[in-house]
Fold:
Amino acid sequence: MYPISIKKNRSILIIKALLVFLLCSTMVVFPRETFQASLRGFNAWLTLVFPALLPFFIMSELLMGLGVVHFMGVLLEPIMRPVFNVPGTGAFVMAMGYTSGAPIGTMLSVELRKKNLCTRMEAERLMSFTNNSSPLFIFGAVAVGMFNNPALGLILAFSHYSANLIVGILLRFFGERDHQKINDIDNKKGLLITRALKALMEAQVSDGRPFGTLLADSIKKSVQTLTLIGGFIILFSVITEIISTLGIMDLFIDAIILLIKPLGMDSNAAPALAVGFFEITLGIKSASESEILLPLQLIAASAIMGWGGLSIHAQVASLAKGTDIRMKT
Structure:
């Protein structure tokens, strides 16, 4: 006889294997749909995600290696600690996350945690409000490309970024009894800028890599991370297509209709929200093409951006793997 815990784990393992087998079988039965969905995901990654994120990924790795993050950590601690209850290095994560888009906020939070520049709780807080859609995505892909109205970019960006900032401020009270705060400057002496410069130089000496080696390592790591992200985008594009082909998406849409009706939302927004639950880009595109009033289209698009899609959540989970950072926060 197996203990109850082993039985539960065994059941989960069997369910996982069964789901993957069914997905694989469905891909064989519907090869054309699978290929078209895979191609859509690949094109989205190659033409939008890869060129948009690669420079920021490389620069962030360089800034980490050159000690700029340590410099900002000391310099901005007096602002970040009282507002968001995270160390000053969180300012770098915020800046990159709000300008580059998900999942760079997670990647940098994980790097800070690995370098012991923040606690587990602080990394979890940072992850929760720095995985945003980038301005390039909101103003370019969404406002211009999907809604064909550049002015709508301001509305979507304001709602998206202000909501994330509010989440960050509210999360400062989550795990407030975290006694492992790092980079706390209350008891440190000397001018702030002097200590910041000292932290920068110490970080460079500690890293020790010549600039050429640092650059090569930064490019290599960035490409590897983006390749992983591309795999998730393609996979979830295929999963979404298969779910739609099998008619399962219709059941999901019916469930969403039951949830949004009490909120006064048009039931015609449900298909876009259902697609957006899995993949952000396809969901927002569906919202922009739905037969509902423009304000409701914007609400649906904003909700999808706030959620990010299971694809983004999977990317976040994969990047956080190997650390003590938990997804539940």
Residues 62 and 310 are 30 Å apart (CA to CA). The chain has 16 helices and no strands. The mean pLDDT is 84. The two ends are 36 Å apart (CA to CA).
